[in-house]
């Protein structure tokens, strides 16, 4: 009794320390995720940059009503959903890549592959666009190769193909992020008890069976958590990639919600309407996370958030 | 010395001292504001370049301005985003150049100083020659009190007689060596131009480096500009910003460009699209036409992959490099006149869509006003266009003229670096100065001495001289003169550009409709440009026009038509 009474303040002190360590991160979240919510107020005014907000005309819910009449919103939502669904379907890829990488026993080769695949994550989309232009334009190297192989007609380019937009952009996104996304799975693999592999091998399992029966189940927890977080980001596709690759041919298919908000808000300087669409996006995102969480609870018996 | 003498000397000394004490303030007043303290002045603007990344900045002209006003001058580029951010934070450059989209923000947000408060130091801005321009700006680009916040660049004075310059800027562009090789055929319309391009491609299917050649491509980073501007030149219109509406260069009527229901002939946009469609069907258009941006086009021009074009923005580098390698080269792009020669433009109220103001947040507002005023004046316009007074002089007749060395400087490719450092046609400042190139200065010469009638023929390159010899011309722009005389071409002489300045701010809902129509049109372009037959083209056009109608194009047309009618009546009334 006396012992536990003595232990309690020490434990409390330790928890305070942890809380103190978390404070900077909480501050960052507060600054960059919660404070900007104040900006939602712009959706209720006819805001003009350079004029104090409260001197601008009050619009009430007019911009939200406008969303309902705006046919572009449906189109961009469709595009966003397609991109998001494709990327959700491809969520096992980093896990698969991590498993395969784990099977490479030569440390130098493994490290090289890991570095080689992680680096594109740090290349800006502008550079990737330039690279893609030199490879996939009508006189690009890859295009010439595809033409020689009879896989593509002359004077055609993947960059100006409406049909190829969804998979081509997804391919580029996967190429850029695959290595980076697999890091968390590599960490999960490192945490698997080696005795499980030894037991499996004793039972006659080879590399494949070890991966299927030991590695994959051990990573499922991580996968599910990331999957649910991904669903929360369903509408957060970003806009840089799509802005750069947008052209007259791809425009109708490549314009996602974030890009539309960028165009409305920053290009057309219709800030208030842009904010109204952003609010809609936030509401949908939060709803999706709640739904995904509920589904997870039903399926797994526990929630993630 | 007698007492009387001493008294008179003393009195004289006192009087002299008294006179001196009176004359000191007068002298100070004449000297103008104090510029003894060195300050930094930044000029920022939409479409203004960044001086720090320019190898032509500083130059002799900039040095002179800096010395005169004891400042360090810098130019910064603004886009809508950065300008809005600076406006919101009250941290704009000292002198700012905006377009119509920002007028309301600047005026209502009180970001600009009232230039009339500085009338005593802004004598160029408020000179009699600028009175009409100022009247328009006070009436249409101000608050209800009619205060003057803005100035426009390149004001043409009422008595200015304009010539076409040495060369034309925009029209039917050709690679001269190839054009000569195919016999310099006369080009008076799009079909003849396409035939010439076809013939040029036949003799030059690929560059010396083995790269394929094309007639041209489209600069996709300027929305629909490449299409409607091409059509403006062939149909005789000038575009309002965005090109959704155009102004007839002869009748000054406003015509809806995209939604052309009820318009009898082809509007510029549709004429432009038809032109690119013809190029496509002839196999002359760059297959990357929908993905090329300005930098890609620049690169292909530099490599000599394009045989033609519409605007002179991209081939200057190629020409300079060719001349540097061989001063007697014929490998140069030149511009032949289209139906509308983009010349003889009388901007009585200055250029539309470029408004300069001095920021009310500037810590050196007075100095900024002084510099803006200097930029507006004759002296600065002269040096920006013609170089500092070491580059020109006054001859025996008292007329200012460029020196022979300066004439050589411009055309001699080997002196390119020296030319860049001279500040002649100074980068950035050239679009800021107040006076039109053609205005006459107090010394009786044109503000821009390169436009002096006797200089036009002296500033030609070897290829241009060869063109003149081949076609029997004095200067290349005589082609336009001949076409105008023959009734084949027109120029901008009848256009009243000031009407555009008299348009009210476009309401937000109309802006939304116009923006949506522009986006719909952009998406429809591939179907139109790549149509394989006239029927396919007509079907694609019909589909787009219906989409535009559904997007509210008729509401937009109604607003623009009414606003234009009202602005035109008022401006024409002011001009009478």
Write the layout of secondary structure elements.
The complex is a heterodimer of chains A (305) and B (576).
Chain A: H1 2-34, E1 45-46, E2 57-58, H2 62-69, H3 71-89, H4 92-103, H5 107-118, H6 125-136, H7 141-148, H8 165-190, H9 194-202, H10 207-232, H11 240-245, H12 251-254, H13 257-267, H14 271-300
Antiparallel strand pairs in A: 1-2
Helix pairs in contact in A: 2-14, 3-8, 4-8, 4-10, 5-8, 8-10, 9-10, 10-14, 13-14
Chain B: H1 3-31, E1 39-46, H2 60-69, E2 71-78, H3 80-89, E3 95-98, H4 103-108, H5 131-140, E4 172-175, H6 176-181, H7 190-203, H8 225-235, E5 237-239, E6 245-248, E7 254-256, H9 268-281, H10 294-302, E8 308-309, H11 316-325, E9 333-336, E10 355-358, H12 365-376, H13 378-386, E11 392-394, E12 400-402, H14 404-411, H15 416-422, H16 462-471, H17 478-485, H18 498-501, H19 508-529, H20 534-550, H21 553-575
Parallel strand pairs in B: 1-2, 1-3
Antiparallel strand pairs in B: 3-10, 4-8, 4-9, 5-6, 6-7, 11-12
Helix pairs in contact in B: 8-9, 19-20, 19-21
What tags apply to this protein structure?
heterodimer; A: 305 residues; mainly alpha; two-stranded antiparallel sheet; 14 helices; 2 strands; 1% strand; globular; B: 576 residues; alpha+beta; D-Maltodextrin-Binding Protein, domain 2; 4-stranded mixed sheet; 3-stranded antiparallel sheet; 21 helices; 12 strands
